[in-house]
Amino acid sequence: MTEGTGTQLGTVGALGLSVISSVSIVICNKALLTTFGFNFATTLTSWHLLVTFCSLHVARMLKLFEHKAFDINTVVGFGLLNGVSIGFLNLCLGFNSVGFYQMTKLAIIPCTVLLETLFLGKLFSRRIQAALFVLLFGVGIATVTDLQLNFLGSVLAALAIITTCIAQIMTNTIQKKFKVTSTQLLYQSCPFQAVTLLIAGPFLDGFLTKKNVFSFTYTFPILGFIILSCLISVSVNFSTFLVIGKTSPVTYQVLGHLKTCLILAFGYILLENPFSWHNIFGIFIAVIGMVLYSYISVKESQQKATESHVQLPQVTTEKETEPLINGDAEPNKIQDPSHLVASWNRPGGAKDFQA
Questions:
Q1: How many beta carbons lie within 10 A of that of residue 324, not counting itself?
Q2: 3-class DSSP state of 12
Q3: Which of 6, 154, 266, 355 is surrounded by the most beta carbons within 10 Å?
Q4: 348: pLDDT confidence band, cut at 50, 70 and 90?
């Protein structure tokens, strides 16, 4: 097996793990919401992150991965930003209609494209932009119902979009800049994310639900589903960092909309949720957009790889014409051509206790 084939299999595995774990945690958390009335999204997310950190710490003790320390300021800032983005997303849902919340999630992709273009110099071809438009159009048809606007809700939506985009872009750039794996980054940032949400969670959930998480009656079935949700979240958090590190923040958002379509289909087929031709048409359009995005991304990656191999002999030839001894010159470097994202108080939202 070649190195390229192994990398492709690793990426496919990461994408598959992300889809399976995310759909599983939605099913589990849906039971917590509808059956047991557990509406404390932010607090549960903090427990998810706490369990994730403990699991990774055990893995480190067993030498399943190597700990790599890097700039502490970057780690703290990244962890706090992730925690804040989750809080803003939950507040956005609390102060807006479900339809406006879905529009907020759709806006994350164009915002990410804009930020990466302006600040990272990353270019997106016309074909990629067209595929993303088809995808967003389809998901919008399938999920957006009403659009009730208010000033505070709009401000919170804007803050949620910006913080989520920056956090996901940082997930990708930090792994490349400091040469750390997704596991190493997740292990170091988890404590700061968990502490942020552990402190803010009870207040935020109490404000949105008018209930106290500490006075909730915890029966054995509820505790069982909470533990199961926390265990699944380890896979969700790990696969999120893995996918963004191996692909890009935009690809991760595209994958997120695939999960949304799968969840809608699952609810219709197994849970007999209300469904219409409006939803079916939207999902169909969205799937076409996803297929186009995947096909174009693969083709463009292959084209870049071919161009880099064509340029390689030219660089070698130029180097061979230089003097054999040159104390002032530095060796030529061949640069890499490639450039360096809870709806418990309202049904139908798409945060779904995402850790």
A1: 5
A2: helix
A3: 355
A4: very low
Look up residue 207 and give its DSSP letter: H
Q: pLDDT at position 324, please?
A: 32
pLDDT of residue 259: 81
Identify the pLDDT of residue 221: 94
C-alpha 170/C-alpha 77 separation (Å) is 10
CA distance 158 to 115: 14
Report the predicted TM-score, pTM, of the whole model to 2 decimal places.
0.78
The two structure tokens encoding residue 23: 């759909």
For residues 8 and 249, give the distance between their C-alpha atoms in angstroms, rounded to a whole number.
17
What is d(CA 156, CA 163) in angstroms, rounded to the nearest whole number? Answer: 11
C-beta atoms surrounding 337 within 10 Å: 10
| Six-digit token string for 53 | 């950190």
Task: Give the three-class secondary structure for 32.
Answer: helix
Q: Where in the chain are the domains?
A: 17-125+147-248
Q: Give the tens place of pLDDT for each residue, 56-79.
A: 999 999 998 999 999 999 999 999
Closest CA to 164 of 247, 85, 103: 85
